[in-house]
Known about the structure:
heterodimer; A: mainly alpha; Non-ribosomal Peptide Synthetase Peptidyl Carrier Protein, Chain A; B: alpha/beta; Rossmann fold; Luciferase, domain 3; GMP Synthetase, Chain A, domain 3; 3 domains; eleven-stranded mixed sheet; 33% helix
Amino acid sequence: MFALFRRKRTVANTEPLDREQVSTELERQIGSWSAVAQELPLQGSTPLFSAGLLDSLQFLDLVLFVERRFSVELGHVAEPTPEKLDTVDKIVELILSASTRSRP
Amino acid sequence: MFKTIDETVERWAEREPGRIFAHFWAKDGSVSSLTYGHLLERSQRFAALLAAHGVRAGEVVVLIQEQDADLVASFVGAILHGAYPSIFAFPSPKISREIYLNTLDQLLQHSAARAVIASARFTTALESLDTWREGVALLPVSAAKAHVTRSLTPRNGADEIAFLQHSSGTTGLKKGVALSHRAVITQLSHLTEALHLSTHDHIISWLPLYHDMGLIACFLLPLCSGVPVTMIDPFDWARDPALLFDAIHAHRGSLCWLPNFAYNFLATRARERPGACFDLSTMRAFINCAEPISARSHETFRARFEGACGLRPEALCSSYAMAENTFAVTQGGISSALRVERLDEDVFQREHTARLATATTTRVKEVVSSGELLQGNRVRIVNAGQPLQERRVGEIVIHSDSLFGGYFNREDLTHAVLDDAGWYFSGDLGYLAGGQLFVTGRRKDLIIVAGKNIYPGDIEEVVSSVQGVVPGRVVAFGVPDDEKGTEQVVVVAETRQALTTTEAGSLRLAISSAIRQDLDCVAKDVQLRPHLSLLKSSSGKIARDANRACYLKGLSGPKPRSPQHAEGDTDVRAL
């Protein structure tokens, strides 16, 4: 497992995350990284890495954004890869699973 | 060093069989090491494998493998056998199997390859390639184990081809750079001297071996000089960039080659391990090479790592290199401090002259020196075939004793860049000042994204085939991305019909997907324009420079409009 995904949570997450809100925030953030995604509009099933909207270096940005913004560790659910984070729907599922797992 | 690569490896193994040549650093922190003795033994098995399958000296062997001990052993094994190895990127889940096989098929045909040695996990995917039926042997790495090692007397001549280097894309595959043993050994000898290489050095690398910087500086230089190297898989590094610093810390690394984007990437993405900080105090050179060097990227890197991490500012070095010259033409920052010139940008653009800025200069352009010429290398700056004076900007033309012999089986392409007197026309722009070379841009239409060469023509061909785009009415070019410290790809395509917002979004996505799938490349921006609105040159071809200038002007002005409301669009003009 990468050391990147081993760090401690810094923000306690006691409230359940809202699926729609998570999705909206992700779409907004991805739109800020990709001119093509910004004008699509982006849908939950739109491929991100495999359709060339994000590059492999932005994968790390995406993981960092998700873990910081939603106070989750994706590594608790599965080792993050571009394939596992290839759509907003997939990312939302991982976030919600990770959130449930790490909530006290 | 000796006259050939095979002779050099055999002598090292004979004299110091237990000496470690390379460490392979896994993402979980485990390390495996390869000695010269074991390297020679494994290489001889690969040589025997090729012989058993009828591969003859002078035939091309393609290597499709993970970055591990088998890859370096099969490379050396092919050379021991007298064949020409060429390392090709392995199949990535990011690119479709069909496209990958098609690209490989092109490589096999252009190079007339006789065999492919592949890691076990790739052989199944490769078996469906039609070319196997035409006499190309597909050999799994594991097959070499069944072959008995046998001692081979070095038999390659110094002027024989040692290996081929290919860059990516349809255009790159046609241009296999053929390098002789003499050129490689000569380059390594000059590089050893320019770097003041010693037995105290340790090279740390995450670079792929199908790239000249990884192959020459981080594989063949350590192999032939006896300086150890630690290799990290490029995919592992991209996911956890701090692995590079872990390896530097663990092995007291001293030399590391990086493309410019990596300075920004490491400065903003490398996260320190809990309870420990990076120790970069042993590093005497981070060498910026393979894409335009940015003073800002160096400053970002220095600001992050100079204090607690112990980075010495003088460790920021530079080099100008290319596969056609085996590798380096210049080396900066080792023998003398790295120079950064502040130029008058207006004079630079208007008069193509590098005049130093003064206190009254309003617009300043910073250019990082690529350093001094390596021994045996000469450079001229020319315009329209005429040499230019110092500080005048023109095309960089190179003559050296490590220059390639030509593109493999492509005399036509060779003659386009190599004149009768042996001068290589690089297609790069720059100037000479005070014995140092400064690279300022490119004349050729090449985009370099994170160190990877991308030919605009390849992108334009792919986009032209996307339904909804007017074939041939597409332009691709690179634009600088200061934040990432590299270039980004932009595509502008014409559509015949006006599109709704939804239709335009879908077409942009289709274009973006096609580029990603076919070329393993990501476009930063895809713009659609009405038919007959792209600028053309007087010869009737789409003018990349002019359309690029229009695009950049559009970014600083009103946002370019899409075809769905673009009637009367005046951003670009049809000629």
